[in-house]
């Protein structure tokens, strides 16, 4: 049997730096655990535009469809702000999500004990926080048609379309219920059914799917109330399921609650391939951070934990994933901090690669 | 000259209770300051549905169009959850906003010194917080067509349309810039121009309007980053302008930062009427809180401060508005707390009407 295949797309900004640390982890598993991957690397985002005039070359897209999992760093940068919408770095990422049909975006928001003080929230509000947001990722207002800027009378009008079919809601709801079954058996679905018909359909379908998961306690919340409750007392939640746009805001909000954005991974999963593995892309929640790119200041942990998610969700290596997560906890407990995590008295920052090396050493 | 006219719509749940306290304030201004209003009262929301089979009777709508300002309590309750979308309590509120064309929703998020400890955020993050969110209120995905649940193939699809014209963006941007001129001269506009064309148009038009306000420092932020930044360090903002749906989430998030939702008022303003006053509706940010309705537990301050906003924005009585706001601060400094504000040692809650009376006494 051939090795499982990984496509690495470091992307822009700090992407390549943090991905270099992930490569160390991958190498460690190959050398010490006989867990080898066939790794290839390619371009996405601004760097792909620089080379090919498109943020995602068709060849890269084709490769992404074939591999067992894609690891992505980050895309974007001020240099590309002037580009037309259709070739902006983000379009590369959105094309991957859409064409690989990665409908379930898993965004854990976990507060690391050693870092609870970094949150802008009170320690008792966030200490021990562990929620999972499941965001629909291939539909909704991100992709609905018609869309564009049109002439109307003597002015322009900007139009986007929020659009969800029953089957699109059904499949992401099932992903969320499955996760809830493996966790605290509580699922909260968020929409604006009080003002949007797409939200009414969302609520109906989620309720219907819930009948197949009688053990899971299902609740519904308007997304604005959801934003409030996440801020007020986030520990009331276990798994949250919501649409693409609400998920974008709410998962970023939840990430910020933990106080350590540089720590948070994500997984985007699609339907099972022939080999039984889901189509999958893993990426840190943070962006390309152009302001600190190339300075060795970036925190590689979010990207490393994204690889841990790959071990768990693509390769069924839960123990190995836990080993990576424990190594991360251990270096944090030792007091190692990258520059984004400063503030404690007397702590000197370590560089991106020092952090990566320390994690490898803990493995 | 006749007295300015007020239409009071107490609505459902705690609406009538908190509005009763506002009436005391109105009476005080009439008796002690010769500032008399012609007050009429009517139904909106669930109670209107109970009586008329519609959450807003046409006669009430017509009255709202004629008065100088509308004061609204809150709408909704579990009893009405089973109603069809088209007659749900919220539709009454949305019809008022739309037909009065109240395009600029002003949502101050202010942290009251005496209450900074109630926030789930650290005290230094929120103490002294004073931001103003200007939310577009009559367009976007709340009202765009096509909308509904349709059959497509052999399944249903839920559709809503995000839609903004240049003039809709222009007018709300102007409201926001005007407010910024009277405040800290900083305006941040939020959208998702990286994924939505309506956001691109939004950013363009706001930038264009900004040329008329060279003194105002204008910035742009993606709404997901906005949610993060509001959570991380809200004091970086002065005025924020955003669309209807993002504004719904972000203003609720900002409200929750202050830790005292029962304290926050809002104003919804439209174009000037013949008498020069803007069309206007004032309402607390909190909902109808059916769980505590009728028990004298509700906090009337948000509704009272909404009346203060009416004094300021409809009747050009900034001094009188400040007088009400100072009275509120004074009772809080005295340690008076309604049940939503408990937690300090040894504090006994006062009732809704005790709180109202205390504020009147301070006037
Ligand atoms: C980069 C951008 C297109 C993207 C999104 O809006 O989905 C990002 O914010 C995210 O959440 O992954
Ligand atoms: C009640 C509801 C329709 C309303 C909205 O979504 O606008 C509310 O959340 C608000 O913010 O005023």
From TrEMBL, chains A, B:
GO cellular component: cytosol
Keyword Ligase belongs to the record: no
Residues noted as binding NAD(+) in the record, renumbered to the chain: 77-90, 287-299
Free-text function comment from the UniProt entry: Catalyzes the oxidation of 3-carboxy-2-hydroxy-4-methylpentanoate (3-isopropylmalate) to 3-carboxy-4-methyl-2-oxopentanoate. The product decarboxylates to 4-methyl-2 oxopentanoate.
Domain of life: Bacteria
Compartments in which it is found: Cytoplasm
Organism: Rhodalgimonas zhirmunskyi
Catalysed reactions listed for this entry: (2R,3S)-3-isopropylmalate + NAD(+) = 4-methyl-2-oxopentanoate + CO2 + NADH
Isopropylmalate dehydrogenase-like domain boundaries: 5-359
Quaternary structure note: Homodimer.
Gene Ontology molecular functions: 3-isopropylmalate dehydrogenase activity; magnesium ion binding; NAD binding
InterPro entries: IsoCit/isopropylmalate_DH_CS, IsoPropMal-DH-like_dom, Isopropylmalate_DH
Lineage: Bacteria, Pseudomonadati, Pseudomonadota, Alphaproteobacteria, Rhodobacterales
Site (Important for catalysis): 142, 192
Similarity remark: Belongs to the isocitrate and isopropylmalate dehydrogenases family. LeuB type 1 subfamily.
Keywords noted in UniProt: Amino-acid biosynthesis, Branched-chain amino acid biosynthesis, Cytoplasm, Leucine biosynthesis, Magnesium, Manganese, Metal-binding, NAD, Oxidoreductase
NCBIfam families linked: leuB
Protein name: 3-isopropylmalate dehydrogenase
Residue sites binding substrate per the record: 97, 107, 135, 224
Pfam families (alphabetical): Iso_dh
Record-level GO BP terms: L-leucine biosynthetic process
Cofactor (UniProt): Mg(2+); Mn(2+)
Pathway(s) this gene product operates in, as recorded in its UniProt entry: Amino-acid biosynthesis; L-leucine biosynthesis; L-leucine from 3-methyl-2-oxobutanoate: step 3/4
């Amino acid at each position: 049997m051939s090795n499982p295949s990984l496509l690495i797309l470091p992307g822009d900004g700090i992407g390549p730096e943090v991905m270099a640390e992930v490569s160390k982890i991958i190498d460690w598993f190959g050398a010490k655990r006989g867990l080898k991957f066939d790794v290839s690397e390619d371009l996405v985002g601004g760097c792909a535009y620089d080379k090919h005039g498109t943020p995602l070359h068709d060849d890269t897209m084709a490769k992404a469809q074939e591999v067992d999992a894609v690891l992505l760093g980050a895309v974007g940068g001020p240099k590309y702000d002037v580009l037309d919408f259709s070739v902006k770095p983000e379009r590369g990422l959105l094309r991957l999500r859409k064409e690989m049909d990665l409908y379930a975006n898993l965004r854990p928001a976990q507060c690391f004990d050693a870092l609870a003080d970094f949150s802008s929230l009170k320690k008792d509000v966030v200490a021990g926080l562990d929620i999972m947001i499941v965001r629909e990722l291939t539909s909704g207002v991100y992709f609905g048609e018609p869309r564009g800027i049109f002439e109307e009378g003597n002015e322009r009008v900007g139009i986007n379309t929020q659009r969800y079919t029953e089957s699109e809601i059904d499949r992401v709801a099932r992903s969320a219920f499955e996760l809830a079954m493996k966790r605290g058996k509580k699922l909260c679905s968020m929409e604006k059914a009080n003002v949007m018909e797409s939200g009414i359909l969302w609520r109906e379908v989620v309720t219907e799917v819930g009948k197949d998961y009688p053990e899971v306690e299902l609740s519904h919340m308007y997304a604005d109330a959801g934003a409030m409750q996440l801020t007020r007392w986030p520990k009331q939640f276990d798994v949250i399921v919501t649409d693409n746009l609400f998920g974008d805001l709410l998962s970023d909000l939840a990430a910020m609650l933990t106080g350590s954005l540089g720590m948070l991974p994500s997984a985007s999963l699609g339907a099972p391939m022939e080999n039984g593995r889901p189509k999958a892309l893993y990426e840190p929640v943070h962006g390309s951070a152009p302001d600190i790119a190339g300075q060795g200041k970036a925190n590689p942990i979010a990207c490393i934990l994204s690889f841990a998610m790959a071990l768990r969700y693509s390769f069924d290596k839960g123990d190995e994933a836990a080993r990576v997560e424990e190594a991360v906890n251990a270096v944090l407990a030792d007091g190692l901090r990258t520059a984004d995590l400063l503030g404690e008295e007397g702590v000197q920052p370590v560089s991106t690669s020092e952090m990566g090396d320390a994690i490898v050493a803990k493995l």
